[in-house]
């Protein structure tokens, strides 16, 4: 009996989004998307990498299923609505967002991983020009 829990086994497949921003002519736009290696974004260096990339999503899905089975449909819906409302927080697109409230809702505020140390805004290599980023978010560019 599975109790409608999602499978923990990883399924082979390709990433949904490669993170390449292509312009009108089908080439990556370096001005608005930043300089990145196309090969690094297309290649998967290890078979477990896809599983590790989807780990948080699978754990969240399994926790929501367990919560639905134990407390009913209202609990996962309420949590999903809270997380969706927090993600819609308004700020300018070129400013870094810390997502403190979202991290506290998901429980990631008590975890420490590589992005906490190595992905700080002052050390980021890709920084877009404010005007170009705003024009892209408004659909002008």
Molecular structure report:
48% of the residues lie in helices and 0% in strands. It is an all-alpha fold and 141 residues long. α5 (74-87) packs antiparallel against α6. The longest helix is centred in the middle third of the chain and has 17 residues, at 55-71. The radius of gyration is 19 Å and the shape is globular. The protein starts with 29 loop residues before the first helix and ends with a helix. The model has no long low-confidence stretch (mean pLDDT 76).
Shape: globular
Query: What Rg, in angstroms, do the CA atoms define?
Result: 19 Å
For the biggest sheet, the summary is: none
Provide a count of the helices.
8
Helicity level: 40-55%
Quaternary structure state of the chains depicted? single chain
Contiguous uncertain segments of 5+ residues: none
**Secondary-structure element string:** HHHHHHHH
Class derived from helix and strand content? mainly alpha
Overall mean confidence score, pLDDT: 76
Per DSSP E runs of 2 or more residues, the count of β-strands stands at 0
Which helices and strands, and how do they pair?
Layout: H1 30-33, H2 38-42, H3 48-53, H4 55-71, H5 74-87, H6 100-106, H7 114-118, H8 130-138
